[in-house]
Structure formats: C-alpha cells, structure tokens
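Worked Example 4.2. Consider the chain below.
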Amino acid sequence: MSRKVLILLGHPGAGKGTQAREIMHRLSIPQISTGDMLRDAIARKTSFGREAKARMDSGELVNDAIVNGIVAERIQRDDCGGGFILDGYPRTVQQAATFRSLMDKSDRLVVIEIGAKSEDLTNRLVGRLMCSGCGEIYNSYSRAPNQAGICNFCNTELFRRSDDREDLIRERFKTYQEETYPLVEFYKQLGLYHHVEGMRLIKDITREILAILDGYQHLVPVPKAGGNQSIA
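Applying the procedure from the previous section yields the following structure tokens:
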C-alpha cells in the first residue's frame, strides 16, 4: 500500500504544527517533528540516538548524517505504514535530497508551504501559548484559552517558548529565508510544491490542505534521488 507523505513548510509561527495536528486526526497518520524524533531516538538508545546525545552533551550540533539516520529509522515504524506528516524536516536542500532516497517507490509525496509574511507573524508568536500535555496551541491575542493559562482539553498549565521573543523571532525568520526557503524552489522543480495562505481561519486552511490531498491518487511516485523521472 502506498504511503501518503506530507511535508509542511513555512515561517516560524505560520501554523505548521496546528495544521499537522488537524490533518493527523483526519487521515489517521502520525505527525513527526525533528525534535520528537530526536528525543525518541535518545530515549530508546538507538545507535543514532546515542551519537546524538554524545554530541549534545559535548555542546556540539547534531549533524545532518545523524538527523537523516533518525528520520530513516522513524519512518519505518509501524505507525507510518499508511503515511506520515513531517514538520521541521527537511530543513535544507541537502536533507531533502537524502530524504528522497529514503522513500519507497510507491510513496506519494505532497509538499505544502503555509505562507505568511514575517511582519504578520510577530504578534502571533509573541502571544503564543503552548500545552505540554496534549500539544494544543493558543494565542493570548487571538485564541485565548477558556481559563487563563490552562489548556481547554487536558487542563495542563500552558507555557511560552523561551525563544518567542521579538528579537529571537526576527533571527528565526532570517534563518528560514537563508536556509530553508530554497526548499520551495527544490520542490517546485519536482512538481510537488503547493502554497496555501496562512493568515486565515484554521478551519479554512485545513479545508484547502485536505482538498490538495484529495488529489493524492493523481500523483506519480516520487523518483529516487538522481533519477530523471518527471513528476506531474
């Protein structure tokens, strides 16, 4: 059976995590993020997890080889049998090229960028509140919880990310433009790229993403890296 693979791109705060959870529940496929995969690999003490922990403990960055290896292991687990949603990976064209080589011939890949201007996202990020229990995301400006500081769904106390400060937010926007945005051109050339406008109601964005995914069966399999097969 072919797997449905969805890669979400977008600026920090564009709504990738929110939409990933919506699609995950609709299609019954897991959302897997780089952070989740890394923490899981370390907890399970896989070979890549041990190597990642050693690097982190010594203050070094986790390199592409380790990240790619962790992804390769994660997407072969049983819960990914019907597909999966990637949030935060790949981040670079080099990672994207490696990921193509990890996919099965029958896999169907869709890449969707949730578009938003960086200036429109500042308040969204500064006001962001997150639940460590169920992962729900709120905003003190536009989507406040029913009870201040408490999740509507699991009653867990909400928190703010330490990097949701305006100065750090602008630095993250710059990093996205320099390192991650080239992925848009990469996937456009493969015919896999779609764009949806992100500064709208959550339900409207979800509806558009699902409409794109409804055409999934019309996509041909993603070619292996280095192949010359065109993608419609």
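The two ends are 20 Å apart (CA to CA). The first helix runs from residue 16 to 27. Compare this with Example 4.1 before moving on.
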